[in-house]
Amino acid sequence: MIKRINLLSVMAVVILAVLISCDNGGNSLDPELEAQLREIVSRYKEEFGIPGVLAGVWIPGKGRLIIEDGLADIDTGRPISKADHVRIGSVTKSFTVTVILQLVGEGLLDLNDPVGNYLPDVENPDATIAELANMKSGIFNYTEDAEFVTEFVESDFLRVWTDQEIVDFADSNVPYFPPGGGWHYSNTNTVILGMIVEQVTGRPLGEEITKRIIEPLGLDGTTYPTTPDMPEPFAHGYGFDP
Known about the structure:
It is a single chain. By secondary structure, the protein is of the alpha+beta class. 33% of the residues lie in helices and 12% in strands. A hairpin with a 4-residue loop joins β4 (63-73) and β5 (78-79). α2 packs across α7 (205-214) and α5 crosses α6 (187-201). The termini are close together.
């Protein structure tokens, strides 16, 4: 059974590209390739029980394709559309690390700075900014913490967590390895990088992302969320209810 959840990070609406305000006309892919891509999307949609899929393919010199397959809202039956806003989830990491690299370029940060310079109480304080960005810090992934998962589900997925609350969940667990001693995907790394951005600039991460990336690139359909609310129109997020 599928249960509706307005959820930041758990999306059964699969997004393969940022599609808002894109045009699918005038530069079509080869019909045979297009048919193959549509079949692949349809097959995975059915296999995983996904209500709606937006898939974007851009191949230099060969064309582009936007696939809209399925529903944005299973209650109303509204088809999914490239005009729908969606949560991009972990793609936000690309925005955060881009700001980090800009600050490095401006001489305000060094990739070899230890995180302890900014957050002295964090586990593995000797991990560098570069190790956080490359998932080599060893710092525990807060979304693997059982207590966090329980509280997240019990809040109906709508609670807004502070960065410090998230880091506290991570710090209650033993690090995976010493800094640089391995590789482990950890959402905590990027949360900490966002906190460092805020310390260095004196402004919220969302403001820095907006000023440095969203506005200069004219990403009119892109915003940094600070609440569970979504701008209209949007595709609902769904998750499996075991």
